[in-house]
Design a protein that fits this description.
Blueprint lengths: L1 E3 L3 E3 L3 E6 L2 E4 L9 E7 L6 H11 L2 H4 L5 E8 L5 E2 L5 E2 L3 E2 H4 L4 E6 L3 E3 L5 E3 L3 H11 L2 E6 L4 H6 L7 E2 L6 H7 L4 E2 L5 E6 L2 E6 L4 H14 L1 H10 L24 H12 L7 H8 L3 H12 L3 H19 L4 H7 L5 H12 L3 H8 L15
Helix pairs in contact: 1-7, 7-8, 10-11, 12-14, 12-15
Length: 374
């Protein structure tokens, strides 16, 4: 088994250690190191990165944490036989579901899988046997988390009913349609929900599994440890959970040339007035008809779409330039820095300055340029 070595804390920060009979008080520091048990669910066709990405994050915790312990990651499957992933790589389970079911599980991590039909339509996989196993294991787990389309398995198990959840944007509509009791939000890269039965986390795209894993580390060990782990992985910490998982130009593609023309017009004129009357005049339709077109074709309002596009452009400038906030606000059509800040808080749950601090891309030095003081 993989021991990626914190001790489990409850109540008044009392430390608990896992024993053969469950969780009990931890005594002196001379006792063996205690690890939180993370079980990752395996099944045929599972996405490889969903399985292998999180352990890379968890494995670095013992190097950065000051307290003893870390994580023990166990890959569990129905049988001890190798599981073939969607990438064709075979993975050997550490234990069966029955074996891990007898242990005290801290976190149950559920990866996902999709099938693509002859018309290139994506169908998330939620095989009944896997769903039943996840539901049973979740009942004895402190925290459950899904990676990417693994949210469909949690939903099929009833673990997301009444909760807000996210998944990969390409299957979000399917998740909402198949499970009306789930409040699907396709935008954030991860969402944490607390209920009477424990914590439930859902993550977005495959690469967002690293952001989700860092958030779990931050919850267990604190922000400073998660930051150190992110630096080891040469990652940005931490993309806020509310940050959008995709950019405006990649959102749902419209089916009419008129709307595509409108979209390109908006993206090319973000520094200009783009009110509903302005856009309606450009498209030669009434204000009411324009609003109806946007709602039908893009699932949003003209104002919301324009604001999203402006935030996207501003985020790009904050990542790649040293432009002042006044300059960014001007070229993106916000007018004032206050309007820019309000839009970032609304769309990304952060501020422009915080976003730049986290995601600024430092350009490489020019060839032949000095790297230090002359």
């Amino acid at each position: 088994m993989r021991r990626y070595g914190p001790n489990r804390r409850v109540g008044n920060d009392a430390l608990l250690a896992e024993t053969d009979s469950g969780w009990g008080p931890l005594g002196t520091v001379n006792q063996p190191i205690v690890n939180r048990l993370i079980v990752i669910v395996l099944f045929e066709g599972v996405d490889l990165l969903d399985v292998t990405g999180p352990p890379e994050v968890f494995s670095l915790v013992p190097r950065e944490a000051t307290e003893r312990g870390g994580y023990e990651v166990v890959l569990a499957a129905e049988t001890p036989e190798p599981v073939t992933t969607a990438a064709g790589v075979r993975i050997m389970p550490d234990a069966t579901f029955d074996e891990v079911g007898a242990r005290a599980i801290d976190t149950l991590l559920v990866p996902g899988s999709v099938e693509v039909d002859s018309e290139q339509r994506i169908h998330p996989v939620a095989e009944p046997g896997t769903v039943a196993r996840v539901k049973a294991l979740a009942a004895r787990t402190r925290r459950v988390a899904s990676v990417c389309v693994g949210a469909h398995i949690l939903a099929a198990a009833g673990l997301l009913d009444g909760k807000r959840a996210t998944t990969h944007w390409s299957t979000a509509q399917r998740l909402a349609a198949d499970h009306p009791a789930v409040r699907v939000d396709p935008d954030p890269i991860f969402i944490r929900q607390q209920g009477e039965e424990g914590e439930v986390w859902t993550g977005a795209g495959i690469s967002a599994c690293l952001d989700l894993s860092l958030a779990l580390v931050a919850e267990d060990f604190g922000e400073s440890v998660a930051l150190s782990v992110a630096r080891r992985l040469v990652m940005y910490l931490k993309r806020p959970g509310g940050q959008s998982q995709f950019s405006v130009p990649l959102e749902q593609v419209s089916t009419t040339r008129r709307v595509e023309d409108l979209r390109h017009h908006i993206l090319s004129h973000l520094d200009q007035r783009l009110t509903v009357p302005d856009l309606a005049a450009y498209a030669h339709v009434s204000d009411r008809q324009l609003t109806r077109i946007f709602k039908t074709e893009l699932g949003t309002t003209p104002h919301a779409y324009v604001e999203s596009a402006r935030v996207e452009r501003a985020a790009n400038l904050l990542e790649t330039t040293d432009d002042t906030l006044e300059r960014v606000a001007s070229v993106c059509g916000f007018g004032t820095v206050d309007t820019l800040i309000r839009a970032f808080r609304r769309r990304l749950a952060t501020t422009p300055s915080e976003y730049r601090a986290r995601f600024r891309i430092t350009p490489p030095p020019l060839s032949g340029a000095p790297h230090g003081p002359a």
